[in-house]
């Protein structure tokens, strides 16, 4: 972790109301935040330009999706990376479990969109993760390997890529995966990057954890060697976000992740 930056990505999915957005942006703008944490705010298309005008430049802006082409057939209703850059967006979130599992986006489509966004100058945040059925069948690594292989097929330069591990089996539970679960999978991803991309990229591509991240469970997760930050969903529009951004400010908190204090915010596949 010492060699890599720490990131917090706020996924403002479903946010509505400009007044609400103003209050959240004000909270972020006037709060004391860890200078060593890069904060990326992701919000729905209609509010992107509005949010860019409200937030200081230290906050990067992300769209929550984009398409694999700029114009032409099949682009009606889609938003391209060129459009996003035009309104001040520098990142795009792709492959979120909502889009893979509800809207049936394939590994191939996610990879194509990521590669095109990179070619147009955006940085990409790509989510990968396994379902309950995958994990219970022992297919976690093979599932992630397939998702990563699709990315590798289309992405030639990984310098502006960030990967997020989303344990789909834990989403909606209100509890995060246990720290050792998150570390095990992120460690696998880093080893995969080492084997199939390059040793340099395995050490520089940020690996984030996403899934019910809160102020109560973020510290033990952040202590894991391969956790470079968080994708925050439901708590990204709450005061909790400030504490998550400041996760690393209190370095005196080295309590074991297996202590009783930290068990309740987490779940394992055995908890089902």
From TrEMBL:
<protein>
    <recommendedName>
        <fullName>Triosephosphate isomerase</fullName>
        <ecNumber>5.3.1.1</ecNumber>
    </recommendedName>
</protein>
<comment type="pathway">
    <text>Carbohydrate biosynthesis; gluconeogenesis.</text>
</comment>
<dbReference type="GO" id="GO:0004807">
    <property type="term" value="F:triose-phosphate isomerase activity"/>
</dbReference>
<dbReference type="InterPro" id="IPR000652">
    <property type="entry name" value="Triosephosphate_isomerase"/>
</dbReference>
<keyword id="KW-0324">Glycolysis</keyword>
<dbReference type="GO" id="GO:0006094">
    <property type="term" value="P:gluconeogenesis"/>
</dbReference>
<comment type="similarity">
    <text>Belongs to the triosephosphate isomerase family.</text>
</comment>
<keyword id="KW-0413">Isomerase</keyword>
<dbReference type="InterPro" id="IPR013785">
    <property type="entry name" value="Aldolase_TIM"/>
</dbReference>
<comment type="subunit">
    <text>Homodimer.</text>
</comment>
<dbReference type="GO" id="GO:0019563">
    <property type="term" value="P:glycerol catabolic process"/>
</dbReference>
<dbReference type="GO" id="GO:0005829">
    <property type="term" value="C:cytosol"/>
</dbReference>
<keyword id="KW-0312">Gluconeogenesis</keyword>
<dbReference type="InterPro" id="IPR035990">
    <property type="entry name" value="TIM_sf"/>
</dbReference>
<dbReference type="GO" id="GO:0046166">
    <property type="term" value="P:glyceraldehyde-3-phosphate biosynthetic process"/>
</dbReference>
<dbReference type="Pfam" id="PF00121">
    <property type="entry name" value="TIM"/>
</dbReference>
<dbReference type="GO" id="GO:0006096">
    <property type="term" value="P:glycolytic process"/>
</dbReference>
<comment type="pathway">
    <text>Carbohydrate degradation; glycolysis; D-glyceraldehyde 3-phosphate from glycerone phosphate: step 1/1.</text>
</comment>
